[in-house]
Automatic annotation (TrEMBL):
Name by which UniProt lists this protein: Choline-glycine betaine transporter
UniProt keyword annotations, A-Z: Cell membrane, Membrane, Transmembrane, Transmembrane helix, Transport
Membership in a protein family: Belongs to the BCCT transporter (TC 2.A.15) family.
Domain of life (superkingdom): Bacteria
Predominant localisation class: membrane
Localization per Swiss-Prot or TrEMBL: Cell membrane
InterPro entries per the UniProt record, alphabetical: BCCT_transptr (IPR000060)
GO molecular function: transmembrane transporter activity
Membrane-spanning residues: 36-53, 73-92, 113-134, 169-186, 215-234, 254-275, 282-301, 341-359, 371-395, 431-453, 474-495, 501-521
Topology class, membrane: Multi-pass membrane protein
Amino acid sequence: MAPGRISNFPLGHVGCGRVFRCRFIILKAKQIDRTVFVPTVSLFVLMSAALLLGGHSLQHWLASLMTGITTNMGWLFFGVYLLNFAFFVYLASSHFGNIRLGKATDKPKYNNFQWGSMVFATAIDASILMLSMVDPLRAVAHPAFNVKPFSHAAYFDASMFGQFDWGPMAWMMFASATIAIGYAMYNKHRQVQRLSEAITLLDGQQGYKKVLRTFVDFLVVVGIMGGIGSSVGLEIPILATVVHSFTGVPDNFMLKLVLFAILFVLFAVTVFAGLEGGIDRLSAAHIWTAVGFLVFVLLLGPTKLLGQLELGNLGHLITRFIPLSTGLVGKGAVTTNANTIFYWGWWLSYMPFTGLFIARISKGRTIRQIIVGMLLFGALGCMSFYAILGGYSLYLQHSGIVNLVQILNTQGQAAVIARVLSTLPFKVAVLIFYALSCFIFLATTISSSAFIVSSLTSLKLKAGQDPSRFNRMIWVGVFILFSMGIVVVGGFKTVQTICTLAGLPLIFVCVLLLGSIVQMVRADQTVYATKRTRAGLEHDAEVQVQQLRKKQQRKAQHSGLAPVRY
């Protein structure tokens, strides 16, 4: 009967559709590495629930925890950064600096300016646009080196601390992952999907090494989640205050929820679209917004005074580099050391993510070129924010135009940033542009991070294959939930504590990376070779690698075991 056929068709169609969707979800779930995915997702869902339920009551406890870490474990952070910095200074200045990532005949894909712009862009997010205005105010009110608060010397030192925290030592922490991953990919011909695959000290099929590799992957995901989640937790309240400044919408939790909803949609669309068509377009846009804003403030602000302050800051940074590096900054300088340890934890949490990106764009460059380039483009680029935006905040405070320190102490850093922006010409346009820039930065950072974390929690992907959208979207949701928990608790100390805790375990990963780099460069037979003899050595090495790979594959087929990593 016709009615029966018409009524049966839709039912059958819907049933097939449900079966297909269920199979699709199951198929995507099979692409996930549950040994890393399940514990990390579970951990952050539980942490998010604890933050959301605990709320403001957790502020005091987290602040006490941060004080305890600064007092009792600060030496670990200062120690690993000193070790890391000294190691890469030696590596760049020694004959090992001549080692090229790739073959002797490989040329860099990007010229120096293009490469440097992309390196600079990796560390530019909304956080530096915000903190570069506030950190110098904390420093002038609570100076180190026994300097009197608000004195002439305090003003000349104020931006120096932020430039140190975002300067050479911080950027050399990225070098550990960059060099290890780049050498593993281009010289040892590995497909590096996870940071553990670049740690040659963990090569082999021994049980404890397998456990350690999984543990490293777990720590990397925790670090990225902690660092990026803290970024959003820091930036949403500030963004809400800025939006309130030019719209008049009440700055309350409902506004923050709306911002989270908008960001979730933006993150979801860009992550769902993938690297091409989503994340890449945001990445191309965000660098220009940052540079444009800096130039605007420099040209319309007190340009001459900013230059004078920066000359003083750079001079003091050079003469006081060693005390800053060791935390010996005078009695009572708890604020300075706590801020540095917070940043050291933050940079550690970003280290795997940023190192992987820089390694992928650095084929054909020598180790020396990469290290020097990261210092010139990365460190100096970040320091320019403190020179211009930090200098402008100090100018407003010193000249008496606005008492920003009082606003910081009574209303918080979000109110300080909104007040600084309000003093610039074209106030409303500046506030709108700043808010849009922060949205672009947030979308770029979290979308890219969700993509990287989903790669780390996937089973082996083929060259050019993206992680499943199912995996990516799960992480977008977890990012938003965790960040919302941080906002509910509130307070800058909360952000500092979570960032520091996220970075602390990655000290262990950094040491493993340094050991692996030593192992790889010492075994490199091309260090003393000429270009021609190096090409011959590389050819012989490639032949040996191919022979070993075939031998291991034949052995694995007969024994049913996985091939040994080499």
